[in-house]
Amino acid sequence: MAEYLLRRLIYTLITIFAVASILFIIFRLLPGDATLQVISPAMDEAVQKRMKEAFGLDKSLWQQYLIYLKNLVTFDWGRSFVTSQPVMDILQYRFWNTVLLMTAGMCFTLVIGIGIGILMAWKRNGAIDVIGTVSGLVFQAAPPFVTGLLLLMLLSYKLGLFPTGGMYPPGQRPDGLLEMLLMPAFWERIVLPTITVSLYYITTPMLVMRDSMLEILGSDFIELARAKGLAPRVVMIKHAARNALLAVVTLGSIMVGFAIGGQVVVESLFSWPGMGQLMVEAAASHDYPVAQGTFLMLAVLVITLNLVTDIIYCYLDPRIKVSKSGMDER
Prior knowledge:
This protein is an all-alpha fold. It has 13 helices and two strands, in the order H-H-H-H-H-H-H-H-H-H-H-H-H-E-E.
């Protein structure tokens, strides 16, 4: 097990290094001169030269690449072209806002989706199965911005039940995470984006859980459990659902990756100050240090979650044998 974890950790670091290198190349292939945001052509040539020396732009591309890698390791990701704030300070605040929204959305999605999937399989071809399947397909087909706009129109503008956006009322920014979590206004504002995220992603765990449960329910050990006179609830939860969960765990990291990408739309729609909204703002203002840092941090988050999922899957399924070439199933 230790050898497998070490190997997966090495693969993860190699992947992060590859992503960081690709981002370095992509941002330097973009059309136009990104430095025009801070080094105006109207400046004196001597001033331009000093500023290029200060930013390291007078060095060769290879030297800039080595400095870039060193700064990544030391978490010195430069300063914003727009606000002159350190990029890490900006990302830290926005990162936790996105994690809060994504965690709420994914928890709601997985708990409700898995629960409904279990009932759909247990009541196969019944009303719950049919309604759940049709509803899931409708939610999956509706883009998040359509669902979010409908929720805003109905629950915010028409009924006035929830605020239209933001994380807290204007002028009431909390000093820390705990203070924000204790604010009722925060919980009022997280409801609509959470529902929007959940409705779009709930179909996948729901239908995967249903199909996996149906396959498990046809197994011999389920028939044996029923023949032993176990209560239907015990057979459904302890024997069938527990084994069927492995398929959902496998999809967990993929869903989180898609959910992080979808945060761009949801955060922009609900004015949620997270990484997705920051990415849009940085791209629109040509703030390349912030945009580059945002892409890299989201990539690191997805890669890390994939590593965690592999470890959880290996722990949950006792049939998995860790071999020198990876995970083999007996």
